[in-house]
Amino acid sequence: MKLKPIAASMAISAAMALMSGSASAITVSGVTWDPNSPFDFVAQSALFESVATTAGQTITGYGKINLFNLEDQDSFCPGCELTFKFYDYVLAASITGTAGETFNFTGGKLDVYVSSRNFSATNPATATDGTLFLSLAGIDVNADTYTLTGTLTTASTIGAQIAGQGSGYFNVTGGAAAAYFDTNGQIGGSDILYTSSFTPLATPIVSGGVVYTHAGTAEITGDTTAVPEPGVLALLGLGLVGLGAARRNKKSA
Fold this sequence. Notes:
Layout: H1 5-22, E1 26-28, E2 31-33, E3 42-49, E4 58-68, E5 71-72, H2 73-76, E6 81-91, E7 102-115, E8 131-138, E9 148-154, E10 163-174, H3 178-181, E11 192-207, E12 210-222, H4 230-252
Helix pairs in contact: 1-4
């Protein structure tokens, strides 16, 4: 079948138009966002966590994402919610609880889930009962082995009463939305930057043998990208083939 130049051009234009349209909004497992948003990618969350004061101790925690690209839950996840669990962060050196004291962790993982709206702040199991949306792993961007660093903001001789703030980076390692967040757009080729703060809970949450002594917030930033659907790629390929055929026909005319 021979295609005239104008037909080939129309095929390519149609393919490009579809690719452009696919980039305007993305939906994965019920979560919808716009990669062209000036706030892409910004998320804010509430979290609950354990504390570590002695070298070798680990921290774990869980929480819920309340804002995604500064849109509320009814906009980015109608009828669903995004929750998460973090774990395997290992304290590198013991801390004394002095205001201004720094702390460092190695390792660390975070899993994000999409589920029905059943999250309970007092029940950590409700943060991990959905579809895996993203798997993230802490990354050492400064070549010092540390994946989470921070500072204590209040002094205390009782470990459970410390408060502070920290930050670190993640690499995307899996999950239904991995292809959209694996952009290597942060320092050291990492994918996501996060900052967090934590303060003591008046009443600790005890679940599964873990004592969650602190509550806090976290801000997560990065970039997402649109991944063309297979059908769009096929159409683009058809357009390019048509253009090639048209050029050959023009040369032989």
